[in-house]
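Good morning,

Attaching, inline, the C-alpha cells for the sequence recovery test we're adding to the shared suite. The designed sequence is right after.
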C-alpha cells in the first residue's frame, strides 16, 4: 500500500533530542525553542514568533489576544479544519461562514465583504494547500472596516503572497508542525505576531497568564498571575525535532515541489477529455507543495476513484466537510447555501505526497488515475 503520508526523519532530529535531554532542560523555551524562534524571525522576517503545542493553540491564543467575546462575529471559510473556528467558538463568538471561490477552496473576499456587520471582530483566512488567499482584497476590507485578520497558515510554511511570506500579512499568522504538514514535529505549532501591540500579552497568555517570560529576562523581580492564559508552549524535545527539520527546509521543499510537478505534468499530459480538474494557482501565490489534489466531477466520481485507487494499493483521501453543515453547527448556520464549499466537500481528492515518495510510485498512481479516467469517459 502507498500510504497517504509518511512522517520524515530528515537528519539530526534524534541527535538534537538527545542533546536537549543531555542539557538537562526539556521543558519549554529551552535552547532549541530559541533556535527555532531565531530561524523563523530571520528566514521570513516575522516580527515575533512563539512556538506553541499546535496550530490549534496558536489560533486559541489569537482569539484571546483579540478579546473575542460572546456575541462577537467572526468571519471564516466553511471549507476548513475545525480548529480554525473552534478557537473563536471557545471565546463565545458567533461564526459567520463565507464561501470558497469557485476555482479554489480559499475564501472568497467578495462574499466576506457582504458578511461584515458592526459586530464583526475578526476575519480568519486559510491559505488552503499553502496557496495564498487574495490578501490585497482581504486587507482592504480589514483596513476599511478596522477588523483584524488572522491567517490560518497551518499548511502555508515557506509560501508567499506576491513577495510577502504567508503568515506575515494579517495581525496574526498561525502555523502547524503536525506530522501531516511539510515541516513537522509530531504535534506542534507557532503563533506569528505581526502587530507589535500584541507581543507583550501574547507571552503572558502562553505562560498560563503569568509574566514568567519577563521574569526570565530579568525585567520583573518575581513572576505572578497577571491575565488569563493557558499552557501553550511546547517541550524543548518538540523544538529539537523541529529545528532539525528547519535545517533541511530547502531540501524538503525542493523534493516536495518535484513530486507536485511530476503529478501535475503526468496527469496533464495523460488525460484525454478530463473529467477532473487539476489545481489552480493564482499568479499572486507561490506553491509550497503542501498538497496535491484533483477536483473530481461529482461525489460519486470521487468515491469510485478512491475505491479504484484503494484496490490498486494507493491511499488517496478526501478532505474537509463544510463546517456550516456539520453536526455541531447545523442549527446555527443562518446564512445562505455555500455552494463552492459544498462542491469541494464532495469532489476534492488528495493524493499521497511525502518526501520519500519515489518517482515510480508517482508514475504508478498517475497511471491508475489516467487509465480509470480515460476508460470511464
Ligand atoms: C492542520 C491544520 C490545523 C491544525 O493544526 P494542529 O497543529 O494539528 O492544531 C488548523 N488549520 C488548518 C487549515 C490545518 O490544515
Amino acid at each position: 500500500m502507498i500510504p497517504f503520508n509518511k512522517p520524515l526523519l530528515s537528519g539530526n532530529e534524534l541527535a538534537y533530542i538527545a542533546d536537549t535531554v543531555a542539557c538537562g532542560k526539556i521543558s519549554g523555551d529551552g535552547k532549541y525553542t530559541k533556535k527555532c524562534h531565531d530561524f523563523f524571525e530571520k528566514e521570513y522576517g516575522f516580527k515575533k514568533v512563539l512556538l506553541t503545542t499546535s496550530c490549534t493553540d496558536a489560533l486559541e491564543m489569537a482569539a484571546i489576544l483579540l478579546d473575542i467575546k460572546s456575541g462577537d462575529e467572526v468571519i471564516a471559510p466553511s471549507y476548513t479544519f475545525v480548529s480554525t473556528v473552534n478557537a473563536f467558538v471557545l471565546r463565545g463568538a458567533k461564526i459567520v461562514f463565507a464561501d470558497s471561490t469557485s476555482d479554489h477552496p480559499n475564501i472568497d473576499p467578495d462574499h466576506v465583504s457582504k458578511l461584515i456587520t458592526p459586530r464583526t471582530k475578526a476575519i480568519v483566512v486559510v491559505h488552503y494547500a499553502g496557496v495564498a488567499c487574495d490578501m490585497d482584497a482581504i486587507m482592504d476590507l480589514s483596513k476599511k472596516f478596522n477588523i483584524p485578520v488572522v491567517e490560518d497558515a497551518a499548511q502555508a510554511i515557506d509560501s508567499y503572497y506576491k513577495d510577502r511570506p504567508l503568515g506575515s500579512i494579517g495581525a496574526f499568522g498561525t502555523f502547524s508542525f503536525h506530522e501531516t504538514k511539510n515541516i513537522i514535529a509530531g504535534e506542534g505549532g507557532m503563533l506569528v505576531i505581526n502587530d507589535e501591540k500584541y507581543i507583550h500579552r501574547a507571552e503572558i497568555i502562553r505562560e498560563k497568564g503569568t509574566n514568567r517570560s519577563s521574569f526570565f529576562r530579568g525585567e520583573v523581580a518575581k513572576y505572578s498571575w497577571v491575565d488569563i492564559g493557558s499552557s501553550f508552549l511546547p517541550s524543548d524535545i518538540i523544538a529539537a525535532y523541529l529545528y532539525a527539520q528547519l535545517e533541511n527546509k530547502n531540501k524538503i521543499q525542493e523534493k516536495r515541489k518535484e513530486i507536485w510537478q511530476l503529478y501535475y505534468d503526468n496527469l496533464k499530459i495523460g488525460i484525454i477529455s478530463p473529467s477532473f480538474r487539476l489545481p489552480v494557482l493564482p499568479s499572486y501565490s507561490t506553491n509550497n507543495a503542501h498538497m496535491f489534489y484533483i477536483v473530481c466531477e461529482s461525489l460519486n466520481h470521487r468515491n469510485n476513484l478512491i475505491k479504484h485507487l484503494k484496490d490498486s494499493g494507493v491511499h488517496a483521501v478526501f478532505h474537509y466537510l463544510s463546517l456550516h453543515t456539520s453536526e455541531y453547527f447545523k442549527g446555527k448556520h443562518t446564512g445562505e447555501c455555500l455552494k463552492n464549499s459544498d462542491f469541494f466537500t464532495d469532489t476534492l481528492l488528495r493524493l499521497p505526497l511525502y518526501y520519500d515518495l519515489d518517482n515510480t510510485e508517482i508514475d504508478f498512481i498517475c497511471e491508475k488515475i489516467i487509465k480509470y479516467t480515460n476508460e470511464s469517459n
